[in-house]
Amino acid sequence: MNILITGVAGFIGSHLADQLIAQGHQIIGVDNLFTGSLENIKHLQNNANFKFVEHDIVEPLFLESATDTKHLKIDQIYNLACPASPIHYQNNAVHTIKANTLGVINILGLARRHGAVILQASTSEVYGDPLEHPQTEEYRGNVNPIGPRACYDEGKRVAETLCFDYHRMHGLKIKVARIFNTYGPKMSFNDGRVVSNFIVQALKNEPITIYGQGEQTRSFCFVIDLVAGLIKLMNSSEEITGPINLGNPEEFTVKQLAEKVIKLTQSSSELVYNDLPIDDPQKRCPNITKAKKILNWQPEIDLERGLKLTVEEFKNRL
To answer: Is there a contact between 138 and 194 (Cβ–Cβ < 8 Å)?
Structure first.
Protein backbone atom coordinates (compact mmCIF):
# COMPACT_ATOMS: atom_id res chain seq x y z
CA MET A 1 0.00 0.00 0.00
CA ASN A 2 0.92 3.65 -0.36
CA ILE A 3 0.88 5.13 3.14
CA LEU A 4 1.33 8.75 4.18
CA ILE A 5 2.73 9.58 7.63
CA THR A 6 2.66 13.18 8.79
CA GLY A 7 5.09 13.92 11.60
CA VAL A 8 7.32 11.17 10.20
CA ALA A 9 10.56 12.64 11.60
CA GLY A 10 9.17 12.67 15.12
CA PHE A 11 9.69 10.10 17.84
CA ILE A 12 6.58 7.98 17.16
CA GLY A 13 6.37 8.73 13.43
CA SER A 14 9.87 7.44 12.70
CA HIS A 15 9.22 4.16 14.55
CA LEU A 16 5.95 3.79 12.66
CA ALA A 17 7.72 4.35 9.33
CA ASP A 18 10.30 1.68 10.19
CA GLN A 19 7.63 -0.87 10.99
CA LEU A 20 5.48 -0.18 7.92
CA ILE A 21 8.48 -0.30 5.57
CA ALA A 22 9.47 -3.62 7.15
CA GLN A 23 5.99 -4.84 6.20
CA GLY A 24 6.65 -3.92 2.56
CA HIS A 25 4.63 -0.72 2.22
CA GLN A 26 5.54 2.41 0.27
CA ILE A 27 5.85 5.34 2.66
CA ILE A 28 5.57 9.05 2.00
CA GLY A 29 6.73 10.91 5.08
CA VAL A 30 5.79 14.54 5.73
CA ASP A 31 7.28 16.76 8.42
CA ASN A 32 8.01 20.46 8.93
CA LEU A 33 10.93 19.55 11.26
CA PHE A 34 9.70 21.89 14.00
CA THR A 35 10.17 19.14 16.59
CA GLY A 36 11.04 16.23 14.30
CA SER A 37 14.64 15.45 13.38
CA LEU A 38 16.15 14.21 10.12
CA GLU A 39 18.40 12.06 12.32
CA ASN A 40 15.39 9.88 13.08
CA ILE A 41 14.86 9.00 9.40
CA LYS A 42 18.34 9.36 7.88
CA HIS A 43 18.62 5.56 7.60
CA LEU A 44 15.57 5.63 5.29
CA GLN A 45 16.77 8.32 2.91
CA ASN A 46 18.14 5.85 0.36
CA ASN A 47 15.32 3.36 0.78
CA ALA A 48 13.32 2.98 -2.43
CA ASN A 49 10.15 2.54 -0.38
CA PHE A 50 10.50 5.89 1.39
CA LYS A 51 9.94 9.42 0.14
CA PHE A 52 10.34 12.47 2.40
CA VAL A 53 8.50 15.76 1.89
CA GLU A 54 9.32 18.75 4.08
CA HIS A 55 6.00 20.50 4.58
CA ASP A 56 3.87 22.12 7.28
CA ILE A 57 0.34 20.69 7.21
CA VAL A 58 -1.05 24.09 8.21
CA GLU A 59 -0.59 24.80 4.49
CA PRO A 60 -2.51 22.67 1.93
CA LEU A 61 -0.59 19.61 0.75
CA PHE A 62 -0.77 18.50 -2.88
CA LEU A 63 1.20 15.30 -3.03
CA GLU A 64 1.23 15.04 -6.80
CA SER A 65 3.38 18.16 -7.11
CA ALA A 66 5.32 17.56 -3.89
CA THR A 67 6.41 14.08 -5.00
CA ASP A 68 6.57 14.66 -8.78
CA THR A 69 4.05 11.87 -9.23
CA LYS A 70 1.03 12.39 -11.48
CA HIS A 71 -1.17 9.48 -10.51
CA LEU A 72 -0.25 8.84 -6.90
CA LYS A 73 -2.99 7.08 -4.92
CA ILE A 74 -2.74 7.12 -1.13
CA ASP A 75 -4.41 4.21 0.69
CA GLN A 76 -3.82 5.16 4.33
CA ILE A 77 -2.86 8.30 6.24
CA TYR A 78 -1.47 8.43 9.78
CA ASN A 79 -1.75 12.03 11.00
CA LEU A 80 0.85 12.45 13.75
CA ALA A 81 1.81 16.04 12.89
CA CYS A 82 1.72 18.15 16.05
CA PRO A 83 4.18 19.05 18.83
CA ALA A 84 3.39 16.61 21.63
CA SER A 85 5.23 17.86 24.72
CA PRO A 86 4.32 20.96 26.76
CA ILE A 87 7.69 22.64 26.21
CA HIS A 88 7.17 22.43 22.44
CA TYR A 89 3.43 22.92 22.00
CA GLN A 90 3.47 25.96 24.32
CA ASN A 91 6.42 27.45 22.45
CA ASN A 92 4.06 28.62 19.71
CA ALA A 93 0.56 28.00 21.04
CA VAL A 94 -1.23 29.56 18.08
CA HIS A 95 0.64 27.38 15.61
CA THR A 96 -0.21 24.32 17.73
CA ILE A 97 -3.89 25.21 17.45
CA LYS A 98 -3.49 25.72 13.70
CA ALA A 99 -1.90 22.28 13.34
CA ASN A 100 -4.92 20.74 15.08
CA THR A 101 -7.51 22.72 13.12
CA LEU A 102 -6.30 24.02 9.76
CA GLY A 103 -3.75 21.23 9.52
CA VAL A 104 -6.26 18.50 10.32
CA ILE A 105 -8.75 19.98 7.83
CA ASN A 106 -6.04 19.91 5.15
CA ILE A 107 -5.18 16.28 5.85
CA LEU A 108 -8.84 15.26 6.02
CA GLY A 109 -9.34 16.92 2.65
CA LEU A 110 -6.37 15.03 1.28
CA ALA A 111 -7.78 11.75 2.62
CA ARG A 112 -11.14 12.53 1.02
CA ARG A 113 -9.57 13.27 -2.39
CA HIS A 114 -7.68 9.97 -2.32
CA GLY A 115 -10.41 7.87 -0.70
CA ALA A 116 -7.87 6.99 2.00
CA VAL A 117 -8.44 5.76 5.53
CA ILE A 118 -7.11 8.32 8.00
CA LEU A 119 -5.91 7.65 11.53
CA GLN A 120 -5.82 10.73 13.74
CA ALA A 121 -3.32 10.62 16.57
CA SER A 122 -5.26 12.08 19.47
CA THR A 123 -4.09 12.09 23.07
CA SER A 124 -4.93 11.30 26.66
CA GLU A 125 -4.74 15.07 27.18
CA VAL A 126 -8.32 15.31 25.88
CA TYR A 127 -9.28 14.03 29.36
CA GLY A 128 -7.51 16.97 31.04
CA ASP A 129 -7.06 16.60 34.80
CA PRO A 130 -9.51 13.69 34.99
CA LEU A 131 -12.27 13.20 37.53
CA GLU A 132 -12.68 9.60 36.32
CA HIS A 133 -9.93 7.07 36.93
CA PRO A 134 -8.81 5.08 34.99
CA GLN A 135 -10.04 6.99 31.94
CA THR A 136 -12.48 5.30 29.58
CA GLU A 137 -13.28 6.52 26.07
CA GLU A 138 -16.74 7.57 27.25
CA TYR A 139 -15.32 10.07 29.75
CA ARG A 140 -15.68 13.60 28.35
CA GLY A 141 -12.83 15.15 30.25
CA ASN A 142 -12.00 18.02 32.57
CA VAL A 143 -10.05 20.49 30.45
CA ASN A 144 -9.31 24.15 31.14
CA PRO A 145 -10.14 25.83 27.79
CA ILE A 146 -8.16 29.01 28.58
CA GLY A 147 -5.08 27.57 30.29
CA PRO A 148 -1.53 27.32 28.89
CA ARG A 149 -2.07 23.68 27.89
CA ALA A 150 -5.34 24.36 26.06
CA CYS A 151 -3.66 24.89 22.69
CA TYR A 152 -2.88 21.17 22.72
CA ASP A 153 -5.69 19.74 24.88
CA GLU A 154 -8.51 21.62 23.19
CA GLY A 155 -6.75 21.45 19.83
CA LYS A 156 -6.80 17.66 19.92
CA ARG A 157 -10.43 17.68 21.02
CA VAL A 158 -11.30 19.81 17.99
CA ALA A 159 -9.24 17.49 15.76
CA GLU A 160 -11.39 14.57 16.93
CA THR A 161 -14.54 16.60 16.23
CA LEU A 162 -13.37 17.37 12.71
CA CYS A 163 -12.67 13.70 12.01
CA PHE A 164 -16.13 12.62 13.09
CA ASP A 165 -17.81 15.46 11.20
CA TYR A 166 -16.00 14.48 7.99
CA HIS A 167 -17.03 10.88 8.69
CA ARG A 168 -20.70 11.85 9.14
CA MET A 169 -20.85 14.39 6.31
CA HIS A 170 -18.64 12.76 3.68
CA GLY A 171 -18.44 9.10 4.66
CA LEU A 172 -14.69 9.44 5.25
CA LYS A 173 -13.10 6.34 6.77
CA ILE A 174 -11.58 7.45 10.08
CA LYS A 175 -9.75 6.00 13.06
CA VAL A 176 -9.05 7.97 16.25
CA ALA A 177 -6.39 6.80 18.71
CA ARG A 178 -6.06 8.41 22.12
CA ILE A 179 -2.38 7.96 22.89
CA PHE A 180 -1.16 7.87 26.50
CA ASN A 181 2.41 8.62 27.65
CA THR A 182 4.79 6.92 25.24
CA TYR A 183 8.55 6.54 25.63
CA GLY A 184 11.49 4.76 24.03
CA PRO A 185 14.53 5.17 21.77
CA LYS A 186 14.70 8.28 19.56
CA MET A 187 13.01 10.52 22.13
CA SER A 188 14.39 14.03 21.97
CA PHE A 189 16.65 14.97 24.88
CA ASN A 190 15.03 18.39 25.27
CA ASP A 191 11.35 17.62 24.77
CA GLY A 192 10.48 18.20 28.42
CA ARG A 193 8.85 14.80 28.84
CA VAL A 194 9.33 13.13 32.17
CA VAL A 195 11.08 9.96 30.91
CA SER A 196 13.60 11.76 28.71
CA ASN A 197 14.22 14.43 31.36
CA PHE A 198 14.91 11.86 34.07
CA ILE A 199 17.18 9.68 31.92
CA VAL A 200 19.30 12.57 30.68
CA GLN A 201 19.64 14.06 34.17
CA ALA A 202 20.50 10.66 35.65
CA LEU A 203 23.12 9.81 33.02
CA LYS A 204 24.75 13.18 33.66
CA ASN A 205 24.46 12.71 37.44
CA GLU A 206 22.54 15.97 37.62
CA PRO A 207 19.68 16.64 40.09
CA ILE A 208 16.43 15.07 38.88
CA THR A 209 13.65 17.63 38.79
CA ILE A 210 10.28 16.55 40.16
CA TYR A 211 7.26 18.83 40.08
CA GLY A 212 5.09 18.89 43.18
CA GLN A 213 5.80 15.98 45.51
CA GLY A 214 5.99 13.47 42.66
CA GLU A 215 2.78 11.77 43.73
CA GLN A 216 1.01 12.46 40.42
CA THR A 217 0.63 9.26 38.41
CA ARG A 218 1.35 8.35 34.81
CA SER A 219 1.27 5.18 32.73
CA PHE A 220 4.14 4.59 30.33
CA CYS A 221 3.79 2.68 27.05
CA PHE A 222 6.88 1.56 25.13
CA VAL A 223 6.89 2.95 21.61
CA ILE A 224 7.04 -0.43 19.84
CA ASP A 225 3.87 -1.51 21.66
CA LEU A 226 2.14 1.73 20.72
CA VAL A 227 3.09 1.42 17.05
CA ALA A 228 1.65 -2.10 16.99
CA GLY A 229 -1.61 -0.70 18.40
CA LEU A 230 -1.75 2.08 15.80
CA ILE A 231 -1.27 -0.39 12.96
CA LYS A 232 -3.93 -2.71 14.36
CA LEU A 233 -6.40 0.16 14.68
CA MET A 234 -5.68 1.39 11.17
CA ASN A 235 -6.32 -2.05 9.71
CA SER A 236 -9.41 -2.82 11.78
CA SER A 237 -12.81 -3.19 10.11
CA GLU A 238 -14.41 -0.07 8.65
CA GLU A 239 -17.06 0.31 11.34
CA ILE A 240 -14.39 0.69 14.02
CA THR A 241 -13.74 4.43 14.20
CA GLY A 242 -12.63 4.87 17.80
CA PRO A 243 -11.77 6.75 19.80
CA ILE A 244 -9.73 3.97 21.35
CA ASN A 245 -7.26 4.38 24.21
CA LEU A 246 -3.76 3.12 23.46
CA GLY A 247 -1.46 3.04 26.45
CA ASN A 248 -0.12 0.90 29.26
CA PRO A 249 -2.55 0.48 32.19
CA GLU A 250 0.28 -0.04 34.70
CA GLU A 251 0.33 3.11 36.85
CA PHE A 252 3.34 4.66 38.54
CA THR A 253 3.96 7.84 40.46
CA VAL A 254 6.46 10.26 38.95
CA LYS A 255 8.67 9.73 42.00
CA GLN A 256 8.63 5.96 41.43
CA LEU A 257 9.74 6.55 37.84
CA ALA A 258 12.63 8.74 39.01
CA GLU A 259 13.76 6.08 41.47
CA LYS A 260 13.65 3.38 38.76
CA VAL A 261 15.73 5.53 36.40
CA ILE A 262 18.33 6.26 39.11
CA LYS A 263 18.63 2.55 39.88
CA LEU A 264 18.93 1.50 36.23
CA THR A 265 21.55 4.12 35.42
CA GLN A 266 23.43 3.66 38.74
CA SER A 267 23.31 7.43 38.99
CA SER A 268 24.33 9.63 41.89
CA SER A 269 21.54 12.09 41.04
CA GLU A 270 19.42 13.46 43.87
CA LEU A 271 15.76 14.43 43.67
CA VAL A 272 14.84 18.12 43.74
CA TYR A 273 11.29 19.44 43.94
CA ASN A 274 9.72 22.37 42.07
CA ASP A 275 6.20 23.80 41.95
CA LEU A 276 3.65 21.99 39.80
CA PRO A 277 2.94 23.51 36.37
CA ILE A 278 -0.53 24.97 35.78
CA ASP A 279 -3.19 22.34 34.95
CA ASP A 280 -0.74 19.44 35.30
CA PRO A 281 -2.91 16.27 35.53
CA GLN A 282 -2.76 14.49 38.88
CA LYS A 283 -3.88 11.10 37.57
CA ARG A 284 -3.36 9.54 34.18
CA CYS A 285 -4.06 5.89 33.40
CA PRO A 286 -5.93 4.32 30.47
CA ASN A 287 -8.74 1.82 30.58
CA ILE A 288 -7.80 -0.33 27.55
CA THR A 289 -10.74 -2.73 27.66
CA LYS A 290 -11.81 -1.65 24.16
CA ALA A 291 -8.32 -2.07 22.70
CA LYS A 292 -8.10 -5.57 24.17
CA LYS A 293 -11.55 -6.60 22.96
CA ILE A 294 -11.77 -4.86 19.59
CA LEU A 295 -8.13 -4.87 18.46
CA ASN A 296 -6.79 -7.83 20.46
CA TRP A 297 -4.03 -5.45 21.58
CA GLN A 298 -2.30 -4.81 24.85
CA PRO A 299 1.25 -3.73 25.75
CA GLU A 300 3.85 -6.49 26.04
CA ILE A 301 6.91 -4.58 27.27
CA ASP A 302 6.88 -3.63 30.94
CA LEU A 303 8.42 -0.42 32.29
CA GLU A 304 11.58 -2.10 33.59
CA ARG A 305 12.47 -3.63 30.23
CA GLY A 306 11.42 -0.57 28.24
CA LEU A 307 13.50 1.75 30.38
CA LYS A 308 16.58 -0.47 29.97
CA LEU A 309 16.26 -0.31 26.17
CA THR A 310 15.69 3.44 26.29
CA VAL A 311 18.61 4.12 28.63
CA GLU A 312 20.99 2.16 26.40
CA GLU A 313 19.95 4.16 23.33
CA PHE A 314 20.26 7.43 25.24
CA LYS A 315 23.77 6.43 26.39
CA ASN A 316 24.84 5.85 22.78
CA ARG A 317 23.56 9.23 21.66
CA LEU A 318 24.97 11.12 24.64
So the answer is: no
- The candidate with the shortest Cα–Cα distance to 31, out of 68, 49, 65, 57, is 57
Tens of each residue's pLDDT in the chain, 318 residues: 999 999 999 999 999 999 999 999 999 999 999 989 999 999 999 999 999 999 999 999 988 766 666 678 999 999 999 987 777 778 789 999 999 999 999 999 999 999 999 999 999 999 999 999 999 999 999 999 999 999 999 999 999 999 999 999 999 999 999 999 999 999 998 888 899 999 999 999 999 999 888 899 999 999 999 999 999 999 999 999 999 999 999 999 999 999 999 999 999 999 999 888 887 888 899 999 999 999 999 999 999 999 999 999 999 998
In terms of Cβ atoms closer than 10 Å to its own Cβ (0-12, 13-18, 19+), residue 192 is: middle
How far, in Å, CA of 254 to CA of 242, rounded?
A: 29
User: Nearest Cα to 64, choosing from 2, 108, 154, 142?
Assistant: 2
Q: Using DSSP, how many helices (H) and how many strands (E) does the chain show?
A: 11, 13
Phi, psi of 218 (to 5 degrees): -140, 160
Provide the whole-model pTM: 0.94
| Class of CATH domain 2-183+221-249+286-299 | alpha beta
- Active site residue: 127, 152, 166, 183, which one? 152
The domain spans of the chain are 2-183+221-249+286-299
- Catalytic site residue 152? yes
Is residue 254 within 8 A of residue 216, CB to CB? The reply is yes
Q: What backbone torsions phi and psi does residue 190 show, to the nearest 5 degrees?
A: -110, 30
